[in-house]
């Protein structure tokens, strides 16, 4: 097994763990009384799409990270990845468990900005590989708009 393949597996494990930890920390999440009772944006996707989207996003992001790690293995890569991990996991309890739409919005804006930064800043280094995080960025833009709507309408 190549080092690159091992890195893909490592990032897959870490990213799937982030989904699991985030899911654990959100309590009842989308099926809970809080989320079911709030005003949600008319463009809120159906519930089944969230799991499918996050699975695809984390697979693509794992490949992206493995390529980035191969091209530029330094503390910056790990630092930005760790920040992304913390923001991604941290949003779930803020929004779903503690029902804090404003702090949740601030966290998701920071996460969206970080992923957008990675997309743009690494383009010269990774080229078309950067397209692997486009689904993550697009989904975060949608999620940010949903969080914003909840903040304004509830």
Helical content (DSSP H or I, runs of 4+): over 70%
Assigned CATH class: Mainly Alpha
How many DSSP-defined strands? 0
Largest sheet: none
CATH homologous superfamily identity: TspO/MBR protein
Tally of helical segments: 7
Overview of the molecule:
It is a single chain. By secondary structure, the protein is mainly α. It has helices at residues 3-25, 33-37, 47-71, 75-97, 101-121, 123-126, 134-153. It has one domain: Ferritin. It starts with a helix and ends with a helix. The relative contact order is 0.15. The model has no long low-confidence stretch (mean pLDDT 95).
Summarize the structure.
The chain is an all-alpha fold.
Ordered list of secondary-structure elements with their pairings:
Elements: H1 3-25, H2 33-37, H3 47-71, H4 75-97, H5 101-121, H6 123-126, H7 134-153
Helix pairs in contact: 1-3, 1-4, 4-5, 5-7
Pick out its properties.
154 residues, Ferritin, mainly alpha, single chain, elongated
